[in-house]
Amino acid sequence: MRRILIINTGGTFSSVKSEGGLTPGLGEHDILAELKTVAKDCELKYEDFCSLDSANILPEHWAGLAKRIEAASREYSGIVVIHGTDTMAYTASMLSFMLWGVPVPVVITGSQLSISHPVADAMENCRAAIHMANSRCPGVFVAFNRKIMLGVRASKVRTMSFDAFDSINYPPVAEINAFGMRIQKELIPRRAAVRFQADTSYSDKVMVVKPVPGTPPEIFDVLADLGCRGIVVEAFGLGGLPFGENDLCEAVHRTVKRGVAVAIGSQCRYDGSSLEVYETGKRALEAGAMEMYDMTTEAAVTKLMWLLGKDLTMEELREKFRENLVNEVSSRDFAE
Ligand code: ASP
């Protein structure tokens, strides 16, 4: 019988009420017996990695998880990671990079209600996650509300609905309906033919800037002064930044000259950026910014963190950021 490892990191899935508010608290005893009822054709093993509200997850947890998954991928046919929904997309994106070429399915899931709640979505999400983990389709995925998404494309878009995640600018790789779970294998990145090894180096010196009309350009200088090595900018519309008063294009220019990698995408969640269309975007490009195209913010942040952990020159980093590594980016130029 195929063996699936369940790794619990916390989140609402395993939460209990406490005086301070909902907090992760359930463990193997409470969770495993429930999960066994939805995993009829595989053997489940369970382990706790941490027990955190996902707001408390740090980049060092990503590296630790990736190492654990690397080791487990030699023993198990698939791995399910239970995770809080709030930062799940960051973890899923970073694991997609760190575990590039992983030989088994790694499926991240969680829920909007604790597994102890009588009408929770926890079991349904886990059922999908376990089924995907048992599918022999390698890669990093998010399972939520009967959808299987590439980890690097998932984003939390709703705070209360059970349909909390969307696959951004990319179709879900599977949906569960009256036909069961049909996996569209052509949507899953091909596994490299090299021997798999997790690549867990990263830099945590990456921040996001979301300008509003009137944002002072000095925000970029402050971030560079604080030691930021990468800045992801959620710019306006197709990716425009002001160049008149409050000249953010010039701010990008001097920040890039200081050796900081600046990536520009859109404040709009869907469709992606196209910096070549407006002067506000072209000037940002001329200032030395890299373009995010249809990457999610979570993917851009973690891709930048991951690339900054390598010993790359700025030119090499720019080249790698442009490259599609794990199907995190598909559009090159919307203006064509
Ligand atoms: N605050 C929780 C967490 O992200 C929310 C959830 O799991 O749904 O850990």
Enter the CATH topology name of the largest domain. Rossmann fold
Annotated CATH homologous superfamily of the largest domain: L-asparaginase, N-terminal domain
Q: Low-confidence parts, pLDDT < 50 over ≥5 residues?
A: none
Helix content: 25-40%
CATH structural class of the largest domain: Alpha Beta
Please tell me how large the radius of gyration is.
Answer: 20 Å
What's the total count of β strands?
A: 16
Q: Strands of the biggest beta sheet: in what spatial order?
A: 4-1-5-6-7-8-11-12
Task: State which percent range the strand residues make up.
Answer: 15-25%
Largest sheet: 8 strands, mixed
Mean pLDDT: 95
Name the assembly state. single chain
Shape: globular
Tally of helical segments: 9
Structural class designation: alpha/beta
Overview of this protein structure:
The protein has 336 residues and is α/β, with parallel strands linked by helices. The protein has 2 domains: 2-187, 3-Layer(aba) Sandwich (Rossmann fold); 206-335, Rossmann fold (3-Layer(aba) Sandwich), CATH 3.40.50. It has 9 helices and 16 strands. The mean pLDDT is 95. Aspartic acid (ASP) binds next to loops.
